[in-house]
Amino acid sequence: MNILITAGGTSEKIDNVRSITNHSTGRLGKEIGEHFLANGHHLTYVTTPQAVRPKAEENLTLIEIETTKDLEAALLEQFKQQSFDGIIHSMAVSDYTTETTMSEEIFIEKLAATLAKQPALSDLTKLTEALYLSLDEIGKTSQQEKKIPSGTDRLLLFLKKNPKIIAMLKEQQPQAILVGFKLLVGVSTEELIHVGQSILAKNNCDFVLANDLEEIHGDQHKGILIDAQGQTVTAQTKNEIAQLIVKKVEEKWRN
């Protein structure tokens, strides 16, 4: 099989020395990748600089990215070049990217200047609309500083929503067996399965691995694999999850 795995956690630049990221280590993706490689499959592994990854070998192609935009570009390039039998999208992708950053003083100056151009804003609806338009305009301010000065007491960071990478995977590779991942924190098993099923249906996944951050401690990693028929299988460690995913993907591919 020709397998694609995404693993690790993306980061979004604030300036040339600062970024927003998450705590994903890529350990689960590495474990899954190593099991696919051990079974003789070819693996394209897309990961981030700080994440762990499988050891170099003949059947492994490694691609390194940082931002969600980088990830999207790398995947689209791979999809032009080859067809995948399975896609394991375990990467923790940033929901938001930075739009611009400015000090409290500059923000207030820009907001005041924008609102001053508006007619009388005593009407609450008109004021609310004007504020939304002003924030949209300010948010598009180009980030000039390569390193944001640290002298301001309050720094305003504008974030905008990233595209959902998982949403485009089946569109680009409809033949691929797609495994999505969903991480929640402190929810019931019922809620975990319910949200996992919604992710599966929304993104046309074949499987979704639903897990709770409070159930992850080192190698102990409780995960519930949900298939398109709503059936679930629970694993208790990263190794068990990896074996389960490889087994289910291989079975579906053979059938």
UniProtKB/TrEMBL annotation:
Gene3D superfamilies, sorted: CoaB-like
**Domain DNA/pantothenate metabolism flavoprotein C-terminal: start-end pairs:** 2-106, 142-250
InterPro entries (UniProt xref): CoaB-like_sf, CoaB_strep, DNA/pantothenate-metab_flavo_C
GO molecular function annotation? ligase activity
Q: Which superkingdom is the protein from?
A: Bacteria
Keyword Ligase in annotation: yes
Q: Does the keyword DNA repair apply?
A: no
List the GO biological process terms.
Answer: coenzyme A biosynthetic process
Which keywords describe this protein according to UniProt? Ligase
Q: What is this protein called?
A: Phosphopantothenate--cysteine ligase
Protein species of origin = Enterococcus rotai
